[in-house]
Amino acid sequence: MKIGMDRTSARRLGTDPEAGPGLDREIERRVCGVEPGSVVPPYSTDETTAVGLANRFSRTRGWWFFEKREVFGGSAFGWIQESQPLFVSVHPIQASAPTRALAICRSLLKVADFLEARPHPVPDARAPLHLKEA
User: Fold this and answer.
1) Which of 14, 80, 85, 95 could be joined to 107 by an S-S link, Cβ 3.0–4.6 Å?
2) pLDDT digits (tens, 9 = 90+) for 7-20
3) How many CB atoms lie within 10 A of CB 64?
4) Where are the domains of the chain?
5) What is the spatial distance between Cα 109 and Cα 105, in angstroms, rounded to a whole number?
6) Whole-model pTM above 0.70?
7) Which of 20, 26, 21, 31 lies closest to 130, judged by CA?
8) DSSP letters along 39-94, please?
9) Which are the contacts of 50, defined by CB distance < 8 A and separation ≥ 6?
């Protein structure tokens, strides 16, 4: 018998994903809603690409984001769903990392975990996130 881990169990155990192509592919699939090609944007390592992704996700999916600098370096990035009642939105979904790009990616995966765990997800008829450009 094989014992496996699902994609969220590592994060639940306190192990956050590291920057690189594997994380970038997971972002393409779970956040952007497309199957990754042979080359994916460097979301987790390039700050401009990650900030662009955060802005598009916020604009197209109805989530507000905030960021803060950690006291000892690094960044923290968080999300609040626009439709959340106030008593829920005081507990945002957030993550931190040594770099801004990685903090954005980690936080977006936590949002994806939240959305995938909802019992009755609301279908989104809009185009995949990567097609929504400014």
Assistant:
1) 95
2) 444 444 467 899 99
3) 13
4) 18-35+42-118
5) 6
6) yes
7) 31
8) S---TTT-HHHHHHHHHHHHHHHTEEEEEEE-TTS-EEEEEEETTS-HHHHTS-EE
9) 43, 44, 100, 101, 102, 104, 105
